User: Fold this.
Amino acid sequence: MLNRAARFFPILRELRSRLPHGATILEVGSGALGLGEFWTGRFVGCDVTFPSPPVQNMRAVRCSGHQLAFKEKSFDAVVVSDVMEHVPPLQRKQVVAEVLRVARKLVILGYPCGKAAFDLDQKLYRDYRSRGLSPPAWLEEHMLHAFPDADLLRELPIGWKTQAIPNESLRFHYWMMRTEMCRLCDYSLRFVLRTMPNIVERFLQQADREPAYRMIFVLTCEPEGGHA
Assistant:
């Protein structure tokens, strides 16, 4: 659970600081939880399947990121968290194009970025195997393709600007994932997160530095004829 907080807390800070109350939000590749694990507002979540009932504040829509079932500029903001590394490399730009198509002014993409992050996950995968543990499904999928890097967002439509935010240093990510292999440690971290979320968030912010395991890219669109 701590690893999900580590990747979603920076995204939630961006949403809160950039969007007015009542703004419409889409999360691509949300699964049954997505933002709803930490975000209390309503949002739309889309995925190819929902293996468990979605959280109450999500309106679940089944569709693929390659062909989103929404009209152009349907949402004030679109979030894509830890999805792009699961998409085959030749299809990643199509997903980015679809996300930009349905967003009005804000897109937030976070993903494990580059070779160093991929090498670290390979090391983590070996750690699971050496302990006789089954790697989680998401880590199994991470082994299938090299991770995307910042070049994925190099060519954006006119008007879109990008800000890159480091999320989880490589060292911290490895420590956190190793810690979560221990059930007692994992339970303890969950308890602290539930009872003292603000303190945990400040702690996690200290780990958001280079060299980073994940990068969060904040894409903003400047209105035609003026500034935001």
Q: What stands out?
A: The chain has one domain: 2-221. The chain has seven helices and seven strands. The chain has a mean pLDDT of 92. The CA atoms of residues 153 and 224 lie 21 Å apart.
